[in-house]
Amino acid sequence: MKKRVGIEALAVAVPSRYVDIEDLARARGVDPAKFTSGLGAKEMAVTDPGEDTVALAATAAARLLKQQDVDPSRIGMLVVGTETGIDHSKPVASHVQGLLKLPRTMRTYDTQHACYGGTAGLMAAVEWIASGAGAGKVAVVVCSDIARYGLNTAGEPTQGGGAVALLVSEQPDLLAMDVGLNGVCTMDVYDFWRPVGRREALVDGHYSINCYLEALSGAYRGWREKAVAAGLVRWSGTMPGEQLARIAYHVPFCKMARKAHAQLRLCDLEDAVGPGPGTPEARDEVAKSQASYDTQVASSLGLNARIGNVYTASLYLALAGLLQREGAQLAGQRIGLLSYGSGCMAEFYSGTVGEKAAERMARADLASVLAKRERVSIEEYERLMKLASDAPEPVAPAPGAFRLTEIREHKRVYAEGTP
Ligand code: CAA
């Protein structure tokens, strides 16, 4: 019998501060409706130099092990997906292994392909377990990033930061994955990039949206072909995409999920045989269906709207937000997931929500993770943005959280807040 493999549990770490997105709009002389309804944002996480990619990853991974009572000796693989790594050579994963005092008998490495890096790590872990190579061990995959475009840029309201740690095993209480049915699409483009040595990303914003939609189309069609052949969805009755109970997308800003969903529906409408909406205009109209968006997408965006872009972690924040709200009613139902990384690469995959999803999400206690944050003024946010990345302020880490305390002879030193 084929192994059941997928995500057993997850944990989320967020920076300790955030700004209200309407405060940011007013400070920039922009109509707040552009950021709230135009981009779909409510709040934006703000990091300081002490909350770097390692600190966020270690906090999320430690929380996962504690909340979900994971025996560290079960872990055989630790992968960190990130596009905001802190060293050209030493991986974030090695810091996490050391800070959490995890056993030496495991593979540790980072995966990078812009926002797709976390999914690359997840697929490596899933396939490692499914192949039998894991020999009964579990994997921890951490997606950790800080999205930073800079003050007064078009991308500024789409910044954010945080980490999501995923426990991958043969007991997929959150999501049993349809291994082998993934659809992928890759294209060599300059839509978003961060040359070596730069702290802020460079982005061709509107072009990046088009690249995302084109790559999504290729990845979704690839998945759909295999899913139809496997009998998971059909070209009869409703459209194949409509047969997924929910679809979680990569969310650089919440409005992007709405655009992505319309594009996915357009793929089905364009490829359907038989009578359908005739003209391209009529197809566009049906693709943008508000009812379909409300049913299949809207409920996944609660965390993304309050945290902002977390690059590799954005899709997994959407999954967390979805299961936090609807874990119980979705148990046993198939959902779709779309990962996108600039440069670019998209992967569409599917899985079935586990019977214990609601119980696992209750343990993750996401409401209190967000409630502990402090709202800061735009002046304070700007001050934090201007701090040098290698000079963290002397702030005591919160209980259970890690912070970068200093960089001594090019070596990073971290402290953990005592509970
Ligand atoms: N009231 C309501 N809505 C308003 C408004 C108002 N007063 N003013 C503008 N809007 C709407 C616009 O109509 C637009 O909506 P639509 O896209 O539905 O038409 C929306 O607000 C945004 O307006 P603009 O397009 O004029 O905004 P902009 O040019 O200033 O920047 C952006 C938007 C390009 C997304 C920019 O924020 C950006 O560059 N972000 C970073 C890049 C990014 O996130 N790309 C996504 C794809 S790449 C990816 O996914 C990888 C990744 O994580 C980065």
Automatic annotation (TrEMBL):
rRNA-binding in keyword set: no
InterPro entries: HMG_CoA_synt_C_dom, HMG_CoA_synth_N, Thiolase-like
Ranges of residues in domain Hydroxymethylglutaryl-coenzyme A synthase N-terminal: 3-169
Keyword terms of this UniProt record: Transferase
Pfam families: HMG_CoA_synt_C, HMG_CoA_synt_N
Stretches assigned to the Hydroxymethylglutaryl-coenzyme A synthase C-terminal domain: 176-269, 287-390
Record carries keyword Transferase: yes
Family: Belongs to the thiolase-like superfamily. HMG-CoA synthase family.
Name under which the protein is recorded: Hydroxymethylglutaryl-CoA synthase
UniProt source species: Pyxidicoccus parkwayensis
Lineage: Bacteria, Pseudomonadati, Myxococcota, Myxococcia, Myxococcales
